[in-house]
Amino acid sequence: MRRYESLLFTLFLWMVVASVKGAANITECPLGGVMLREDRYPAILTCQGFSDTDTVTWSVKAKGTLDKNLISCRPNQSFSYNSSERDLLVGRTGNVSQLYILNEYRLRAGRASIQCSIGTGNTMPCDVEAVNPASMTSSDCQLVMRNDDWTVLGNCSFVGAYSTQDIYTCSWHQQGAGQPSVETAGGINKTKIVKNQAEYYNGMCSFTSSLPTVEGDYSYTVDFFPGPDTKPSVGVTIQRPGLPVTRCPELINTTENIHCHCLPNPTTPGSPLPTLQWRGLGSSERVIPDITALNIAPLCQLTWGPPGQQVELSTKLADGPERVFIIRPGGSLVVGEVLPLVCSVSNAYPDATVKWTSTMSGNSYPCDEPETTSTRSCTFTVQNFHNRESVTCTGRNTEYPERLFGSDTYEILLA
């Protein structure tokens, strides 16, 4: 804080001097320091605030010493340089002079102070620092959402970062779904490498934060220093899940265990993915040792949402039908009588299809209909059939029709 206050006070004094004497100023150095980027050559500093007839002198002074490397540019000179400082060049057009630092930024950084002067009037000292912006794109970043503690974890890898001040910062900015922007400070893990005899750092910028609670699309933008001009950004979606589903194998060997799974809804799985388990088991896979145990109909349970606001949904394992029964008239029938039959299917989850068949006249029989979950009645007129003809209703589970089914047969007795 004291250093910052001292800098502001020095700046104030130079502003007073400039207003009185019309002192020159370095445009790129309003607060006494300039950051040179190694991905941009040459670095250019601009001196203004003098007349066309003034001689402009640039000085590059090593910090803590009195030695200066001076380069002067008279009114009639377009360019000038100092033979001992071949990486420095001064150019001039009218009342504007520019200092070109051609290379070796790091040799200047942290150890040099630059001034522009006209006669005895110097500009405020401009301290030089250097950075090499890291390479970091959106494809270098990833986010992981966790439903169990309702958090988001993010990381971005970076390559080739360098700061002569050894300053590296990382923050993540969340925005979206009409909610206020949220900034989270990130952590940096870096490793030094040497390339072409120069130091750089590769590493990771990471963060952990609570997920938003409002459904919608969100973006996370990474602000890394020293980093690229285009900030990396990755996105996530918060979406409430639909009912879970259960899956067991369709074909079963009765001598083997049956592996049934509790799964997210295929249409609306939820984001982040919910926690799924068979109630009482703590696992999303259920091993059933015997086919008869399927009648237990265990619950597949889903949990989703932030602590204190969790949503719980559940669905049963497919089972049934428990009973298939044809509701029939009592006594014998006579030719010409209208015979209404209804197939009753009980305790089938999630549902059952019904199929009517008969031994009377094959596919032309009036009750031969496609399998359906809605048509469970069959009405026909008794004709001159032989005794002991039959009508059969078969009910099959919609999830596992080859494994879970039942049927009932009604024998027609004519008077």
From TrEMBL:
InterPro entries in the cross-refs: Ig-like_dom, Ig-like_dom_sf, Ig-like_fold
Signal peptide: 1-22
Keywords recorded for this protein, A-Z: Signal
Ig-like domain boundaries: 321-405
Organism: Littorina saxatilis
Official protein name in the record: Ig-like domain-containing protein
SUPFAM superfamilies recorded: Immunoglobulin
